[in-house]
Amino acid sequence: MDNFYIEDWFPLFMFASLGILVFTGLPVAFVISGIGIAFGFLGMAYDVFSFIEFFNIVSRIWGGISENMVMVAVPMFIYMGTMLEKSGVAEDLLECLNMLLRKVPGGLALSVTLMGTIMAATTGIIGASVVMMTLLALPVMMRRNYDPSLATGTIAASGTLGILIPPSIMLVLMSDLLSVSVGNLFLAAIIPGLLLASLYTVYIFVRCQLNPSLAPPLPEGEAVHGKDLVMMMLRSFLPPVFLIVLVLGSIFAGFATPTEAAGVGAVGATFLALVKGRLKWPVLKDVCERSALTGAMLFFLFAGATVFSYVFRSLGGDDLVIDLVEGAGLGPWGILLLLMLIVFILGFFFDWVEITLIVLPIFAPVIAQLDFGHHLDIGGLEATEAQVLTWFAVLVAVNLQTSFLTPPFGFALFYLKGVAPKSITIQQIYKGIIPFVLLQVLGLILVMYFPELALWMPNTLLE
User: Fold this and answer.
1) Do residues 347 and 428 touch, judged by C-beta distance below 8 A?
2) Count of domains for the chain
């Protein structure tokens, strides 16, 4: 009876242990891998796990993560984003957009949103994006008497777009976990990412139109006109746009793999720093160190999650999840909504890396077996399993946008508060992000109800 009980419920205890130990402050990679190893030994004590299986974990890490050429793109995208932060590209871009939108209600806030969208398409490093935009934009917004909640909410939400808009590190990881094409995921995420940016833009414009005191316009005396404005656009707007075309265009046109395009992006970012005269030894050293540390942290998490997921499956975790889902008596849509709710709630407490590495391998097989009827049929063609998983991955990605903004562990809020002026209170930040979280939920509902938002581009361009 004991063996039967352990065999059926050990995976559930693994999740419970993870939920408790993640709050101890220990590195998440140690927690995930430690729980996997500990439950492996407990499984040995109850004859539901064998010691020889630990050797399978090593081969999975080495033969899966370490030899996956797509994963090589991750450290190069990290390098690209870090170098762009140091090169002054973002600072010049914000100034240019501010001049172009100076007569539009909420022009500076809209400039921050557009800059977040453009920078998202060049880097997927959320911490760097939020810190950079806070340092650049928030002091200017405060000097111009912007509402603190509107200013902080705009910066936090716009800075997180990089996790969804390609080339996104999260999408590269998802493609590996779901065994779907990273090119398909990149294409599928473009419209949902731009949809979120559009929702932010409409919200800011309408709110500032109704209440102009929230965002006073730029004084005419500070504006740039004529030839000076054209030169500013050539110097500040075109370089990041060119880099986006270079990286994403080469992938979508089939000229380069994501890994090769990441290398091109890294070289392009270095070239921009050289042109701006910022490519000095201290800068290059700092960029390389930060890129190496961030990459090492991510790959340590990948290895830890491999340990956890292998032991979880070996102890019958997949069967337990399927039994629980089937026992709930929910239909396909009920199961999907339940999973989206679980991901949303997990976002209050976990980072996107932990949620992705834990949730996707467990729930993706369940989603792949569900029948959504003709809802996912695009152009009269029946959806394949790969298209279902692509749609599901985009839904999770949009959902995970909220994990950066929801307290108590919204990392974008921590980044923002850490570098914001002391006059900005955490209450103002929390108040500012509420409308943007609601907009993200609206975006999730739209992609769920209109799957062509995610599937049209990969179906059309890769057919």
Assistant:
1) no
2) 1
Q: How far apart are CA 262 and CA 173, in angstroms?
A: 14
Which pLDDT does position 444 carry in this prediction? Answer: 94
Long-range contacts made by residues 11-15, C-beta under 8 angstroms, separation at least 24?
A: 11/312, 11/315, 11/316, 11/317, 11/320, 11/321, 12/320, 13/39, 14/39, 14/308, 14/311, 14/312, 14/315, 14/317
> Per the domain annotation, does 1 fall within a domain?
no
What's the whole-model pTM score? 0.77
Which pLDDT band, with edges at 50, 70 and 90, does 379 fall under? low
433 part of a folded domain? yes
Closest CA to 130 of 347, 438, 429, 350: 429
3-class state of residue 420 by DSSP: coil
Contact present, 131 and 87 (Cβ < 8 Å): no
Q: Which domain range does residue 381 map to?
A: 6-462
Q: Please check whether residue 245 lies inside any domain of the structure.
A: yes
In this prediction, residues 415-434 reach a mean pLDDT of 82
Residue 356's nearest CA partner among 314, 407, 401 is 401
Over range 113-128, report the average pLDDT: 73
CB of 111 within 8 A of CB of 101? Answer: yes
Written as one letter, the residue type at 307 is: V
Query: Do residues 434 and 156 touch, judged by C-beta distance below 8 A?
Result: no
Distance (Å, whole) CA 23 – CA 4: 30
Tokens representing 112 are 């921050």
Residue of 338, 398, 402 lying closest to 366 (CA atoms): 338
CB 204 within 8 A of CB 150: yes
Distances (CA, A) of 394 to 132, 166, 277, 331, 434: 26, 12, 39, 21, 22
| Two tokens, residue 176 | 């590996």
pLDDT value at 407 more than 80: no
Whether the bond between 408 and the residue before it is cis, its omega within 30 degrees of 0, is yes
Running DSSP on this structure, what letter comes out for residue 25? Answer: -
Which pairs with CB-CB distance under 8 Å and at least 24 residues apart come from 246-252?
Answer: 247/80, 247/121, 247/122, 247/167, 248/121, 248/166, 248/167, 248/186, 251/166, 251/167, 251/183, 251/186, 252/183, 252/186, 252/187, 252/461
Higher pLDDT, 46 or 127: 46
65 within domain boundaries: yes
Could you give the CA distance from residue 161 to residue 95 in angstroms, rounded to a whole number? 20
Predicted confidence (pLDDT) per residue in 224-280, tens digit: 666 777 787 777 778 877 887 777 777 777 777 777 888 888 888 888 888 888 888
| 264 contacts 256 by C-beta, under 8 angstroms | yes
